[in-house]
Amino acid sequence: MGSYLFRRLLNLIPILIGISFLSFVLINLSPSDPAEVAVRVNEVTPTEEVLAETRAKLGLDKPFLTRYVAWLNNSLHGDFGNRYVDDKPVLGEIQKALPATLVLAGAALCLTLVCSLSAGIVCALYEGTFLDRLIRGGVFLGTAMPSFWAGLLLMWLFAVKLDLVPTSGMDGPSSVLLPAVTLSLAYIATYTRLIRANMIQNKQENYILYARVRGLPERSITRHMFKNSLQASLTALGMSLPKLIAGTFVVESIFAWPGIGRLCVAAIFNRDFPVIQAYVLIMAVLFVVGNVLVDILSAAVDPRLRKEF
Q1: In this structure, is residue 43 part of a structural domain?
Q2: Matching InterPro entries, A to Z (predicted)?
């Protein structure tokens, strides 16, 4: 296990370097001049003298690789530069917005796990019945409905018509309910289908037949069947955790949730390149690290996976 862990962490280094390079390159491929954007966003006339001074201040007058190395070194020390809008440190703004996103993603994750596990197990145990078809119909509906449309419908029904929860903002526990439900709908549908399919597949395995022949109680058989069906779901969960955080920008924009996704959307409209760079880098690193952690956890559960790497 130690050798496997060392190899995985060693392979992580070039991937992270490549991600940081792409994050830096993508912003530099923008047709807009960062110096002019930084000047115009503060309502200053972009004269040649002002642009030259701004380029020197932002380090844009240096060679590309020099700027990349400096940006990477600063990023490793937590310095992502300052915003163009108000010249505040990008890291400070991200730290302010991140807790709200984590609250929303955590609530959505809890809803996803509870609903998908329950629905997936029920569908597998009652395969082919009316209850199975009914749940799967709801699952397909949740998959097909875009999150922004589902959010607007939920807001119209529960916030506007029934006046049960706030329409927007982060104001108490009730305000997280609609955004969390909206964010979790697609994940509930995905994991319900995944758990159902894996449990039905395991239901046909010989060990289930042998367990019934031995006279084991059905509850014990279901528990073993469920445990052996979690491998694929565990792998998918490792990718869903970063997606829950990175994919909140649509929901946060609809419900005016003061999270990191809404911060990035505002930065895109303002062409605030330092914020966009930091957001892309952090989210990409989350995806890679989440994937590696799931691989390590899967290898710890199943020793056969260590030999395949």
Answers
A1: no
A2: BPD_transp_1_N, CntB, MetI-like, MetI-like_sf
